[in-house]
Amino acid sequence: MVKLNRIYTRTGDDGTTGLVDGTRRAKHDVRMEAIGAVDEANSAVGFAAVSLDPSCPHGAVLQRIQNDLFDLGADLATPGEDFTPSEMVLRMVPGQSSWLESQIDMVNQDLAPLTSFILPGGSESAARVHLARAAVRRAERSVAALAADEPVNPAALAYINRLSDYLFVLARAVNAAGSGDVLWIPGQNR
């Protein structure tokens, strides 16, 4: 369990931040950008979750996802090439992506097939889920940029990729099982 007695440490006043292994990186480092983008995506997921009806089962799913996103941040904050989880090292595992896939399949089975791309919107709750999806996609780009420079846990990359898919189908489900989706009409305003 994490225990924080003091929120500020002053160690980042020089523009660096510490990683799990004790090394320090510039706050603008590509690894720090990925960690920050995941944190922002987590906040967006929380913003979407509070808009759902308390009886909606998807709220509990989003809460689990928020916990997984903290795990993802911890994984990214642990540089190295050994992605084996242990008592001391928190790593994403393939089962987290498999669970997301099962959630995608469960939500998607009740949706009408898409006949067009959809615009992010519909109801307020669906719009918030779409905003979270866009934040997750940005986080995915940041994690992929990190992976181009340094080793990244493949399970972490898979999870962040799968999460945007889940949020897409969730937004459709929140929009009255897709009937409230706003369809894109190509060239409508020419």
Write out key terms for the chains shown.
190 residues, mainly alpha, Hypothetical Protein Ta1238, Chain: A, two-stranded antiparallel ribbon, two-stranded antiparallel sheet, elongated
Written account of the structure:
The radius of gyration is 18 Å and the shape is elongated. It has a single domain, classed as Cobalamin adenosyltransferase-like (Hypothetical Protein Ta1238, Chain: A, Up-down Bundle), CATH 1.20.1200.10. Helix 1 (30-49) runs antiparallel to helix 4 and helix 3 runs parallel beside helix 5 (154-174). The strands form 2 sheets. Strands 1-2 form a two-stranded antiparallel sheet. A two-stranded antiparallel sheet has the order 3-4. The protein has helices at residues 30-49, 58-76, 94-108, 124-149, 154-174; strands spanning 16-18, 24-26, 118-119, 182-183. It starts with 15 loop residues before the first strand and ends in a 7-residue tail after the last strand. The protein is mostly helical and 190 residues long.
Domain count: the total is 1
The amount of helix comes to 40-55%
Give the overall average pLDDT: 91
Question: What oligomeric state do the depicted chains represent?
Answer: single chain
Q: What is the tally of helical segments?
A: 5
Poorly predicted sequence stretches spanning 5 or more consecutive residues: none
N/C terminus separation: 57 Å
Rg of Cα set: 18 Å
- Strand percentage lies at 5-15%
Total strands: the figure is 4
Largest sheet: 2 strands, antiparallel
Question: What is the CATH architecture descriptor?
Answer: Up-down Bundle
CATH classification, class level:
Mainly Alpha
Q: Secondary-structure element sequence?
A: EEHHHEHHE
CATH topology: Hypothetical Protein Ta1238, Chain: A
Name of the CATH superfamily: Cobalamin adenosyltransferase-like
User: How would you write the strand order of the largest sheet?
Assistant: 1-2
